């Protein structure tokens, strides 16, 4: 049964990493600026999920704080960039 | 490494199932972000990544640490509550910026109408520089 869990954790790691590669491709070739902001937001989210899966893989709680920090900073940066696209300035 | 071995069979099965489902959904969402045609279709890809994929992975992490440490470990609820609160805000702000920019750039083929909420008045451009125009 432990091998089943190891196999599924490996599958989840590969899936999340491929999802991050897809987001990076969309970030690189996105035709407009809001495409890139959306791809960067999804990249933050998948990075947070990668930290969670790594926490399950190594059996430690340290990665949980990493995931919380990534979620917080991702939200703030995405809101800042969306506001910049909308208004041309962030703090008004 | 450590922690993966000492788990009973039923908990390992549950965690494995949730991990496989969640990771597949995350991959499907990112594939939608990569392959869909227009921006307003592409907006729907990360939605299932954030709600269903992240939810499955968070529940898997919760079950894993609860069974592995033999006590109730539920601080993944913080992340899921934060995600469920902030995901609509983020998508609404990006959509608003995209609709505004598409209307301002007169890209009528992108399908941004917004129900007439954001109408770009013609004489607004003539006066002082409008917000968002650089």
Describe the structure using short key phrases.
heterodimer; A: 92 residues; mainly alpha; Helix Hairpins; 3 helices; B: 134 residues; 5 helices
What does this molecule look like?
The complex is a heterodimer of chains A (92) and B (134). The mean pLDDT of chain A is 89. Chain A is flat. Chain A has 92 residues and is mainly alpha-helical. Chain A has helices spanning 2-29, 33-58, 62-87. Chain A has a single domain (2-87), classed as Orthogonal Bundle (Helix Hairpins), CATH 1.10.287. With 134 residues, chain B is mainly α. Chain B has one domain. Helix content of chain B is 66%, strand content 0%. In chain B, helix 3 (45-69) packs antiparallel against helix 4 (76-104). Chain B is elongated and about 60 Å long. The N and C termini of chain B lie far apart (53 Å). The model of chain B is unreliable at 123-127 (pLDDT under 50).
Q: What's the short story on this structure?
A:
Chain A is mostly helical and 92 residues long. Chain A has one domain (2-87): Helix Hairpins (Orthogonal Bundle), CATH 1.10.287.
């Amino acid at each position: 049964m432990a091998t089943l869990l190891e196999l599924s954790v490996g599958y989840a790691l590969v899936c999340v990493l491929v999802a991050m590669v897809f987001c990076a491709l969309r970030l690189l070739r996105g035709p407009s600026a809001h495409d890139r902001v959306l791809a960067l937001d999804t990249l933050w989210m998948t990075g947070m999920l990668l930290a969670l899966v790594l926490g399950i893989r190594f059996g430690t709680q340290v990665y949980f704080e990493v995931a919380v920090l990534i979620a917080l900073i991702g939200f703030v940066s995405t809101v800042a960039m969306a506001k910049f696209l909308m208004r041309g300035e962030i703090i008004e | 490494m450590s922690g993966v071995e000492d788990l009973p069979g039923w908990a390992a099965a549950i965690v494995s199932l949730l991990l496989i489902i969640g990771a597949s959904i995350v991959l499907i969402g990112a594939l939608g972000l990569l392959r869909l045609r227009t921006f307003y279709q592409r907006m729907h890809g990360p939605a299932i990544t954030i709600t269903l994929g992240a939810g499955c992975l968070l529940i898997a992490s919760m079950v894993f640490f609860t069974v592995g440490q033999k006590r109730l470990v539920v601080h993944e609820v913080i992340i899921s509550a934060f995600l469920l609160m902030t995901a609509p805000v983020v998508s609404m702000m990006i959509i608003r910026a995209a609709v505004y920019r598409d209307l301002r750039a007169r890209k009528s083929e992108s399908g941004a109408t917004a129900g007439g909420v954001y109408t770009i008045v013609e004489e607004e451009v003539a006066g002082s520089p409008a917000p968002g125009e650089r």
